[in-house]
């Protein structure tokens, strides 16, 4: 595939977090294909550089640079901000994609598929999610430490990165923020989750934060999206969608035209309620 032609006058710059694999990697690949200059970030330098190398296999190496970013580490966030400021002078698109599940599974991982399918179905059908009798024999554990790390990564990490990059986004003509949330974070009255609790709370908080930030920055387009159930490491490769298919909706929101929706939750490519 030929390298996209770069027009310096109209070049747009994007940061994607947690981009060394899965949906984040695919978001980078699709944005680069659209001619966006992508700063592919990963907490682990080796894995991030390997991802940058993999993009070369698609003939897409010129429009991507790697920078280390651990969303839990303020020094790492500050270093990314300085890098972008010095090299590009502004930022146009931020995709907060990095995330963890906050759980460990012992035994049959199909248990996760059953829970997610049941939960997501209940979001759309209005049923009670956790009353479904599970068939898989695996066990899910959620320790306090895992729960804390999950909240710190999925919500506070995205918030810290966003707040640090807002001044550079304000220098853009068309700033976009996309928060990769989850249908598992949809709110249901009188229901405190007993499974995947930290993950659900972290994504509910991220979706609410999206709405607050959209009100605070009316000249931005700031949205969150559940990309659908995809076969990646976080789902033990159990989801039916490919990472590439799941990446399409965050990419669409990253490339929204001026005057596009802001403050919304999308389920894949459609506006939904959370
Ligand atoms: N797959 C699905 O069905 C699905 C559905 C709804 C929402 N999502 C959301 O989509 C996003 C991407 O998930 P995925 O499916 O692509 O899972 P994945 O393949 O497990 O990718 C998660 C990415 O987040 C990175 N990450 C974790 N902690 C980080 C930190 N502290 N700093 C920077 N990066 C960090 C991981 O880096 P390492 O490689 O170093 O661990 C990895 O690159 C997540 O926010 C997830 O919650 C996924």
From TrEMBL:
Gene3D superfamilies for the chain: NAD(P)-binding Rossmann-like Domain
One annotated GO molecular function: oxidoreductase activity, acting on the CH-OH group of donors, NAD or NADP as acceptor
EC class: oxidoreductase
Pfam family, one: adh_short
Catalytic activity, EC: 1.1.1.-
Record-level GO cellular component terms: membrane
InterPro entries from the UniProt entry: CBR1-like, NAD(P)-bd_dom_sf, SDR_fam
UniProt organism field: Sesamum alatum
Superkingdom, natural source: Eukaryota
Annotated protein name in UniProt: Short-chain dehydrogenase/reductase
PANTHER family: (+)-NEOMENTHOL DEHYDROGENASE, OS02G0640600 PROTEIN
Similarity comment text for this entry: Belongs to the short-chain dehydrogenases/reductases (SDR) family.
Keyword tags: NADP, Oxidoreductase
């Amino acid at each position: 595939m030929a390298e996209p032609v770069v027009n310096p006058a109209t070049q747009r710059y994007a940061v994607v977090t947690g981009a060394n694999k899965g949906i984040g990697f695919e978001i980078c690949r699709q944005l680069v294909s659209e001619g966006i200059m992508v700063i592919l970030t990963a907490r682990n330098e080796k894995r991030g550089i390997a991802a940058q190398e993999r993009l070369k296999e698609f003939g897409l190496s010129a429009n991507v640079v790697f920078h280390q970013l651990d969303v839990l580490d303020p020094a790492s966030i500050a270093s990314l901000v300085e890098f972008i400021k010095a090299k590009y002078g502004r930022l146009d698109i931020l995709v907060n994609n990095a995330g963890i599940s906050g759980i460990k599974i012992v035994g049959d991982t199909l248990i996760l598929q059953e829970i997610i399918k049941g939960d997501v179905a209940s979001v759309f059908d209005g049923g009670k999610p956790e009353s479904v009798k599970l068939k898989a024999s695996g066990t899910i554990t959620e320790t306090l430490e895992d729960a804390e790390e999950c909240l710190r990564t999925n919500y506070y990490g995205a918030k810290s990165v966003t707040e640090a990059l807002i001044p550079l986004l304000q220098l853009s003509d068309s700033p976009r923020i996309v928060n990769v949330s989850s249908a598992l974070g949809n709110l249901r009255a009188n229901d405190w989750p007993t499974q995947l609790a930290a993950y659900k709370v972290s994504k509910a908080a991220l979706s609410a934060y999206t709405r607050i930030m959209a009100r605070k920055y009316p000249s931005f387009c700031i949205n969150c999206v559940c990309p659908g159930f995809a076969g990646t490491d976080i789902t033990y490769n159990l989801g039916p969608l490919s990472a590439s298919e799941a990446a399409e909706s965050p990419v669409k929101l990253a490339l929204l035209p001026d005057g596009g929706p802001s403050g919304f939750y999308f389920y894949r490519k459609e506006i939904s309620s959370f």
